[in-house]
């Protein structure tokens, strides 16, 4: 618990105290009633906390480190995913790997299968790598220090802040989409970056830290933990993207957007880059046994290590014909078997699949091989190609 503030806890109601928050980047300083906001949220959270299995009180004899491990798993699963979806995944995961040592002993395929359906598979891989690192460096004790958490694969400032505050009750900031919406309405803040690009030194991180430090001043058994969870719940249930429930909001007396009735203007979305249209071309190639040819994505980055139909990006017919020559593949027909539209960052992609065949001289390799339809269920396949294969098969 090395990060407790150690400051004297406040007991009674205090006059509205303003605490300065400054931002070098934004070149201004402004004052927030941090203790009052923290107290209002803590009072609201007591009866309103959403039940979630990882929030259940730590059972007697469970080491704090094991509890922190469960919080870490939940926070990793919750990124871009709803609580109701995560709950069954979390329960299954904790039953199979109840502590960091059991996860560290798992193999990557098991972990990916357990994660299947949650997307963003690098997160699952990073959980495994991080668990092994915790065994190696920390002797299986899940770290409590922010700096140590940040050294684990896949752990960024949000996850480190969530684990430190929720599990260990340290006054560490969290900033995610819900918190951004809540804070930007409370203080009518606009920003030009995307939420994922905000750095801990940015204004919203500083406000969040100032608030959780104020919560640490309040007489409460787990004030930092409860405060950050209250911010998350407020953003999810009261200060919702549309039609926020301001009349029942405990923060309405402090909320500038409510006073101005400008809630719908915050958070102001950063300008989005223009959409770029792209057409990708894939081939469905079967061998005599009806097995399907797949290619492994070897480039680092998105979907690294996943399988997909042989593909050329940003290359429609007729140019795609040439692009498949190095793989010794060619088209049987110019009529697509199926097509799919999807988005990746600023690209709107039309993916077309054509019937194809192998040419003389083709040979399978480690990254280009045939799989039976049954085997497809046991290997990681990119989601767009899995959808296409489902359509075709
Ligand atoms: S008063 Fe309304 S806009 Fe302001 S924080 Fe509460 S719910 Fe959000």
Please give a quick description of this structure.
By secondary structure, the protein is α+β, with helices and mostly antiparallel strands. It is 38% helix and 14% strand.
Bound molecules: iron/sulfur cluster
* CATH class category label of the largest domain: Mainly Alpha
Low-confidence parts lasting 5 or more residues at pLDDT below 50? Answer: 1-16, 23-28
Most strands sheet: 5 strands, mixed
Structural class: alpha+beta
- CATH names the topology of the largest domain as Endonuclease III, domain 1
Overall mean pLDDT stands at: 89
Instruction: Say which CATH homologous superfamily of the largest domain is assigned.
Output: Hypothetical protein, domain 2
Secondary-structure arrangement, i.e. CATH architecture of the largest domain:
Orthogonal Bundle
Elements, N to C (H/E):
EEHHHHHHHHHHHHEEEEHEEEEH
Helix % is: 25-40%
């Amino acid at each position: 618990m090395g990060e407790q503030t150690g400051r004297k806890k406040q007991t009674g109601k205090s006059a509205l105290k303003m605490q300065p928050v400054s931002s070098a980047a934004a070149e201004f300083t402004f004052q927030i009633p941090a203790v009052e906001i923290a107290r209002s949220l803590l009072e609201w959270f007591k009866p309103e906390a959403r039940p979630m299995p990882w929030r259940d009180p730590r059972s007697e004899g469970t080491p704090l480190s094991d509890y922190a491990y469960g919080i870490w798993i939940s926070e990793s699963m919750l990124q871009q995913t709803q609580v109701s979806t995560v709950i069954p995944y979390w329960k299954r995961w904790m039953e199979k790997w109840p502590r960091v040592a059991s996860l560290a002993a798992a193999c990557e395929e098991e972990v990916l299968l357990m994660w299947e359906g949650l997307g963003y598979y690098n997160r699952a891989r990073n959980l495994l790598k991080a668990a092994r690192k915790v065994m190696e460096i920390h002797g299986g004790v899940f770290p409590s220090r922010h700096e140590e958490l940040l050294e684990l694969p896949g752990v960024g400032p949000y996850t480190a802040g969530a684990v430190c505050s929720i599990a260990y009750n340290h006054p560490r900031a969290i900033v995610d989409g819900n918190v951004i919406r809540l804070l930007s309405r409370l203080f009518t803040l606009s920003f030009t970056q995307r939420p994922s690009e905000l750095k801990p030194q940015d204004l919203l991180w500083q406000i969040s830290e100032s608030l959780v430090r104020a919560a640490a001043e309040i007489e409460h058994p787990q004030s930092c933990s409860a405060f950050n969870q209250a911010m998350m719940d407020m953003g999810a249930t009261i200060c919702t993207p549309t039609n926020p429930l301001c009349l029942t909001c405990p923060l309405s007396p402090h909320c500038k957007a409510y006073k101005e009735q400008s809630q719908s203007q915050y958070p102001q979305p950063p300008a989005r880059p223009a959409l770029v249209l792209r057409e990708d071309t894939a081939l469905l190639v079967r061998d005599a046994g009806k097995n399907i040819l797949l290619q492994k994505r070897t480039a680092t980055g998105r979907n690294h290590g996943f399988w997909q139909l042989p593909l050329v990006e940003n290359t429609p017919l007729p140019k795609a014909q040439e692009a498949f020559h190095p793989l010794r593949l060619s088209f049987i027909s110019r009529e697509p078997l199926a097509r799919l539209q999807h988005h990746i960052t600023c690209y709107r992609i039309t993916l077309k699949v054509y019937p194809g065949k192998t040419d003389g001289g083709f040979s399978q390799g480690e990254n280009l091989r045939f799989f039976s339809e049954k085997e497809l269920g046991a290997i990681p396949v990119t989601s767009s190609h899995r959808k296409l294969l489902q359509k075709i098969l």
